[in-house]
Write a structure and sequence with these properties.
Elements lengths: L2 H6 L15 H10 L3 E10 L6 H14 L5 E6 L5 E6 L5 H17 L6 E10 L2 E8 L4 E5 L11 H11 L22
Antiparallel strand pairs: 1-3, 1-4, 2-3, 4-5, 5-6
Helix pairs in contact: 3-4
Pfam family, one: PspAB
C-alpha cells in the first residue's frame, strides 16, 4: 500500500491464511464428539473467470486430486454465477479432504485468482440434517451454515450458534454475523 492509498483511506485486504484450513480436522473431532459426523463432502467456491487461464489451473487442481483413487472431484455452477469444485472422500478422511481443499485454494491463489475466490466448505451430518463449516477466503475465518430442512431458504440459527460454540477454540470464527453468508445450493448440502 502506497502513501497516497493511506491518505485516501484505501486499504488492501489481508492475504488469506490458507494453512488455517489444517485446523479443521480438530474441529471435526470436536463436532464428532457432539454427534456431528463428517459426510465426506467439501467444496471450493469461486467466480469463474473468462478465458483459459483459470480453466488450466482448475484442471491442474482436479488432476492432483484424482491421483488418489478414493477421491472424486466435480464442477458445479450455482444460480448466483459461482462455480463450485466439489471433492468427495471416504467419510472418515477429513484430513485428506482438507488437504485437497488447501491444494485447490493455494493453486488458485498462487496463479493470481485469489480475488475470485469466495469460500471453502466441509460438510457434516447431524440427526439427518446437513451442515457446513465454511471458510471465508478473504477473511481467513470460519462460520457454520445450517439450512433448515423444514423450510426452503431458511437457516437453522440455533444449530449454527451451537456449532460455533463447539468449535470456537479449534478454528478462528468470523465475529461479524452479517458475513455468515447463506450458501444455498452448495454441493453436499
Amino acid at each position: 500500500m502506497g502513501f497516497l492509498d493511506g491518505l485516501l483511506g484505501r486499504t488492501k485486504p489481508p492475504k488469506a491464511n490458507l494453512d488455517v484450513l489444517f485446523s479443521v480436522p480438530q474441529a471435526a473431532l470436536t463436532l464428532q464428539a457432539e454427534g456431528f459426523a463428517f459426510s465426506g463432502h467439501g467444496a471450493v467456491c469461486f467466480r469463474d473467470a473468462e478465458g483459459r487461464a483459470d480453466d488450466e489451473v482448475i484442471a491442474s487442481a482436479q488432476e492432483m486430486i484424482r491421483t488418489d483413487p478414493t477421491a472424486t472431484v466435480e464442477m458445479h455452477a450455482d444460480e448466483f454465477g459461482f462455480t463450485w469444485l466439489e471433492v468427495v472422500r471416504p467419510s472418515g478422511d477429513v484430513s485428506g479432504l482438507v488437504t485437497d481443499l488447501h491444494a485447490v485454494n493455494s493453486t488458485m491463489a498462487a496463479q493470481g485468482f485469489d480475488a475470485s475466490m469466495l469460500c471453502s466448505t466441509v460438510v457434516f451430518e447431524h440427526e439427518g440434517q446437513r451442515s457446513a463449516l465454511v471458510y471465508l477466503f478473504k477473511r481467513g475465518t470460519f462460520y457454520p451454515f445450517v439450512p433448515d430442512p423444514t423450510a426452503a431458504r431458511r437457516r437453522d440459527n440455533p444449530t449454527e450458534l451451537r456449532m460455533r460454540a463447539l468449535i470456537e477454540q479449534d478454528v478462528p470464527i468470523e465475529p461479524d454475523l452479517e458475513r455468515w453468508l447463506a450458501i444455498w445450493g452448495a454441493p453436499g448440502l
